[in-house]
Amino acid sequence: KLLRTGIHVMVSDEEPVKICNDKLLFYNKLKKLLYPVIPTYDRLNKNISSQLVVKERFGAGSKLTGINLSFSESQTFSRNLHNPIFQPFVKGDEFTIDMYVTKRKEVKGIIARERLVVVGGESKITKTLKDNQLEKLCQNLALDLNLYGHVNIQCIKDNKNDYNIVECN
Fold first, then answer.
1. How many Cβ atoms sit within 10 Å of the Cβ of residue 60?
2. How far from each other are the two terminal CA atoms of the chain, in whole angstroms?
3. pTM of the predicted model as reported, rounded to 2 decimal places
C-alpha cells in the first residue's frame, strides 16, 4: 500500500528479517556460510561452556539477558524466558557496526563503534574507530544475507583478537 503511494520503506525482504529475528536460525545460517558466529543452542547442555549467556531466541534487544552465568544460574534464569537460547560466554570488547545498504546491494556507509558503556543491553557511550577487517566482515555478512536499509551488527573481539558475530538488527 505504501509503495503504491510512492513511499519506499527501507526494510529488508521477509526472509532476511526472519533470519535476523531468530537467533537460532541466524546462528545456523551463518555457520553454514562459514561466518565466525557464536554457537547458539535451544537446549541447555553442560558441554556448551562453563560460563553462559541466556536470552530470548526471538527479537532484538537484551533486557532479559543473563550474562556470564553458571550452568545452574542459566537453568534458573531460563525459566523466566519464553524461548530461551544458550550461548558460550565470550569475553572481549564489544562492537556495533552500522551501515546503509542500497536496494542495488551497495554499502554506502559503514561505521564501527566500540561499546564502552552498556546499560540494559543498550550502548550509552561508544567510540568510533576504523577497522577494515571488521568492516569487511560485516559488509560481506549484510550482502550475503541480502539485507537492505539500515543494518546494525553486534560483534565481540575475543582475547585471541578474533571477531565473534553476536546478532544483526
1. 14
2. 24
3. 0.90
